[in-house]
Design a protein that fits this description.
alpha+beta; Peptide Deformylase; five-stranded antiparallel beta sheet; 3 helices; 7 strands; globular; binds nickel (II) ion
């Protein structure tokens, strides 16, 4: 298990569509372990493989004391929405109100290739949507309406970390919303 450096907004891996997981081997198990430990260390409630520089469709979460991971998720979203603060370990120290579906059902497979279904609402649903976006090369600020996105981009450009190499260990005061 290794805590990996987290890639920051501006890193091209975060805007790359990740490839499906098709090999369920020791390398994948190591990736899930690294994601889990990096997420817990940050601390964050979710972490997607592209955020540690691996362009594969897998992410981990830690919500309501439940630890999980999924590969190749397919989402079914509720019509009912939620709106509230959202953050990202790749956009440290910032959070912005982001609209999401209130609940989600995710179908995917675990690290052994066994089918799994995740049902979540509120924070877990937000997390699953946010992390699946990472697999599609989408960062949450892209979900904001144009005016809010302009403000978010200004705050990002003014952040000390912007354009800097990622530190090996991150201390994020907004870890509660780190996704
Ligand atoms: Ni994120």
């Amino acid at each position: 298990m290794t805590v990996q450096p987290i890639r920051l907004f501006g890193d091209p891996v975060l805007t790359t569509v990740a490839a499906p997981v098709d090999t369920f081997d020791k390398e994948l198990r190591t990736l899930v372990s690294d994601l889990t430990h990096t997420m817990l260390e940050a601390p964050g409630v979710g972490l997607a493989a592209p955020q540690i520089g691996v362009s594969l469709r897998v992410f981990t979460w830690y919500v309501d004391d439940e630890l999980g991971h999924v590969c190749n998720p397919i989402l079914h979203l509720s019509d009912e929405e939620q709106d509230g603060p959202e953050g990202c370990l790749s956009v440290p120290g910032l959070s912005f109100d982001t609209k999401r579906a209130l609940s989600v059902v995710a179908h995917g497979v675990d690290m052994h290739g066994e089918p799994i279904t995740i049902r979540g609402s509120e924070l877990l649903a937000r997390c699953i949507q946010h992390e699946t976006d990472h697999l599609d090369g989408v960062v949450f600020v892209d979900r904001l309406d144009p005016e809010a996105r302009r403000d978010a981009m200004r705050a990002i450009r003014e952040s000390q970390w912007f354009g800097q190499p990622a530190p090996a260990v991150k201390l994020d005061p907004h870890g509660r919303f780190g996704l």
